[in-house]
TrEMBL record:
InterPro entries assigned to the protein according to its UniProt record, in alphabetical order: AB_hydrolase, AB_hydrolase_1, AB_hydrolase_fold
Superkingdom assignment: Bacteria
Record keyword Hydrolase present: yes
Keyword Hydrolase found: yes
Protein name: Alpha/beta fold hydrolase
Pfam families referenced in this protein's UniProt entry, alphabetically: Abhydrolase_1
GO molecular function: hydrolase activity
Domain AB hydrolase-1 span(s) in chain numbering: 25-136
Keywords, ordered alphabetically: Hydrolase
Coiled coil: none
Species the sequence originates in: Streptosporangium amethystogenes subsp. fukuiense
PANTHER family: AB HYDROLASE-1 DOMAIN-CONTAINING PROTEIN, HYDROLASE, ALPHA/BETA FOLD FAMILY PROTEIN
């Protein structure tokens, strides 16, 4: 694996850790969950043959500390972090952006707020439950998860969250399979567990309740690739991508694996991502 160039960027209320590999047009990779920049390790080297590949730990996670640790988290502020990285690494030039899960939500807001800076966005399973016809049911899930987190602690809340994400009638799953990426090293595993309370308590309720500007997104849909996991049809994070693709009359691109296909099928995931970006 090629060692990336590491950097630190001061933004409003936080300091971002970012990593850069390769040469060529900028490709900003926005991680979801608690994965951080390391979640793209399995695809970044191959993509760096054609792109300047940049990823980062979102504010409040891992190596990107908040100035105020209890600060509320907003999609718009996370998207502004992405914009600041674009300005730093590709000033004045449109860039490519790909995001997974909560990172895909950030990517969608980045597209609608700074379309002049975005050439294409790939959004893999953004869990935008507010766009769904049965949104009230899923808002109730988010409230239950927060109640459980406050009353019973992290792991019961993670189990409640995992149960709400799986498709109806599916067998129960280990909550950790939903809320973290499989660690490649002990240090990464420790970071993931350390970040899970922050993710579940402050990222999940804010991000999953977010509703993008649907009309503005429709006007920019020619720059948007909506994606889902081939193995996650019917699961909650898959459904908003499918709903938006149908609404905008665009193709829903199926990536290998499920919601964490980036981690479970990195070679195939990276190959398809390259193909989609080159289209």
């Amino acid at each position: 694996m090629t060692e990336p160039t590491l950097g630190r960027l001061r933004v409003d209320g936080a300091t971002l850790h970012y990593e850069v590999r390769g040469r060529g047009p900028l490709l900003l990779l926005i991680p979801g969950g608690t994965g951080g920049a390391a979640s793209f390790d399995g695809v970044a080297d191959d993509l760096a043959a054609d792109y300047t590949v940049a990823s980062y730990d979102p504010r409040g996670l891992s190596r990107s500390p908040l100035d105020a640790p209890e600060a509320a988290q907003r999609v718009a502020q996370h998207a502004d972090d992405g914009f600041r990285l674009l300005e730093l690494l590709s000033p004045g030039k449109p860039a490519l952006v790909a995001g997974c899960s909560s990172g895909a939500i950030v990517a969608l807001h980045l597209l609608t707020s700074h379309p002049e800076r975005i050439e294409r966005v790939v959004a893999h399973e953004p869990p935008l439950v507010g766009v769904l016809p049965d949104a009230a049911e899923h808002h109730a899930l988010l409230a239950r998860v927060q109640d459980t987190l406050r009353r019973d602690g992290l792991m019961p809340a993670a189990a409640e969250f995992a149960a709400g994400l799986r498709r109806p009638g599916a067998d129960p799953v280990d909550a950790r399979a939903v809320t973290e990426l499989p660690p490649q090293a002990a240090a990464r595993a420790e970071r993931t567990m350390a970040d899970m309370s922050y993710f579940l308590g402050r990222i999940v309720p804010s991000f999953m309740a977010y509703v993008p500007d649907m009309d503005r997104l429709a006007a920019l849909s020619d720059r948007l690739v909506l994606a889902g996991g081939a193995d996650s049809r019917g699961e909650l994070p898959y459904r908003p991508a499918a709903f938006l693709a149908e609404r905008y009359g665009t193709e829903l691109v199926h990536f290998p694996g499920g919601h964490t296909g980036l981690s479970t099928h990195p070679a195939e995931f990276g190959e398809l991502l390259r193909k989609v970006l080159d289209t």
